[in-house]
């Protein structure tokens, strides 16, 4: 049954990160043809923006070392966007050589995670991103900026909102078109999310540029998403079947499951264009390939019963 709530957008863009954030954290390396089929099935379920892979150092993330091969076999359609993660100019060169038109850089709100994830301080990572964004924009690419550890950091604890907003501002000032606020370890709660969005908007970043990226470690991802939507956000990152994590962040588990998100938005009458049943079938298929059940409650509830 559809029952709307006041204060929500009419439509939400789901930014699917399963093939990248999900598969980067799998112990096994998923074969490239399975990745390509996964992405094709996600598109078929109505997802239009699908983060496909990363052009990072293959030793740092061996699960995505096949980025070139994957883009070579992935059927492209003008209806779909396939952004990829790019940390540096070497990554950008690889992305450009493979016909990528949308990239995402990824900064950190904390020094510890910047060091662990990028082998750089915050200042050094911004210096690394600067030529990436400049060259990407000159080539006509769309550039998104992630900020990680926006609700807390496993090494540093609480992260001041002003610190998050400052890094976000510096990333956007490089010339990025969109921002994604990442609760990498899933510790945030809805009041914190509301305050965070207020702080980021207060730093001069318009709401229509802001996306949210929740991991579900403490079961708060859906509640945090609702808080973000009520604060005016309309772009939500999610991962099919709740796959995910970050290999360089202790205690990061899966992202908000796309099925859980779409089930809630369908019930609220908020359009996404995504067919939740088709998507859940895809996540069941992927769970079979990975040899473990999907953590998504909606995927489990929609699974055919014996
Ligand atoms: P580094 O070791 O400092 O690299 O790593 P370097 O710049 O010193 O270069 C060393 C060698 O690596 C050089 O080769 C480079 O060419 C090569 P050599 O000259 O010695 O032969 N190299 C590369 N090769 C291929 N592709 C590249 C590349 N770059 C350098 N792109 C680096 C620095 C940034 C490369 C490394 O730290 C890295 O790859 N980090 C990626 C970590 C990662 O992918 N983490 C997960 C994604 S972030 C995330 O999940 C959070 C998010 O979901 C949001 C949230 O939840 O909060 C986005
Ligand atoms: Mg993430």
UniProtKB/TrEMBL annotation:
Residues 12-280 form the Pyruvate carboxyltransferase domain. PROSITE patterns: PYR_CT (PS50991). GO terms for molecular function: hydroxymethylglutaryl-CoA lyase activity; metal ion binding. GO terms for biological process: ketone body biosynthetic process; L-leucine catabolic process. Gene3D superfamilies: Aldolase class I. Pfam families: HMGL-like (PF00682). Keywords: Lyase, Metal-binding. Belongs to the HMG-CoA lyase family. This is Hydroxymethylglutaryl-CoA lyase. It comes from Actinomadura logoneensis. The lineage of its organism: Bacteria, Bacillati, Actinomycetota, Actinomycetes, Streptosporangiales.
């Amino acid at each position: 049954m559809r029952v709307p709530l006041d204060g929500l957008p009419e439509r939400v863009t789901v930014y699917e990160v399963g093939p990248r954030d999900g598969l980067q954290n799998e112990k096994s390396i998923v074969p490239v043809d399975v990745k390509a089929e996964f992405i094709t099935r996600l598109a078929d379920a109505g997802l239009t923006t699908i983060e496909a892979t990363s052009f990072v150092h293959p030793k740092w993330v061996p699960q995505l070392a096949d980025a070139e091969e994957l883009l070579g076999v992935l059927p492209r359609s003008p209806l779909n966007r396939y952004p990829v993660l790019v940390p540096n100019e070497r990554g950008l060169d690889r992305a450009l050589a493979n016909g990528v038109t949308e990239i995402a850089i990824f900064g950190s709100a904390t020094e510890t995670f910047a060091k662990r994830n990028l082998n750089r301080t915050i200042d050094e990572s911004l210096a690394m991103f600067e030529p990436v964004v400049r060259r990407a924009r000159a080539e006509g690419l769309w550039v998104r900026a992630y900020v990680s550890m926006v609700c807390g950091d496993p090494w540093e604890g609480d992260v001041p909102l002003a610190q998050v907003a400052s890094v976000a501002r510096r990333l956007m000032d490089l010339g990025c078109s969109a921002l994604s606020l990442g609760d990498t370890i899933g510790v945030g709660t809805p009041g914190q999310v509301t305050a965070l969005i207020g702080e980021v908007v207060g730093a001069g970043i318009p709401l229509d540029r802001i996306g949210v990226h929740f991991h579900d470690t403490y079961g708060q991802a859906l509640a945090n998403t609702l808080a973000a939507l009520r604060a005016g956000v309309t772009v939500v990152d999610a991962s099919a079947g709740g796959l995910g994590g970050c290999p360089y962040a202790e205690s990061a588990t899966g992202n908000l499951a796309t099925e859980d998100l779409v089930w809630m938005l369908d019930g609220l009458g908020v359009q996404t264009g995504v067919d939740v049943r088709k998507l859940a079938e895809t996540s069941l298929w992927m769970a079979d390939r990975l040899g473990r059940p999907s953590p998504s409650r909606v995927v489990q509830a929609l699974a055919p019963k014996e």
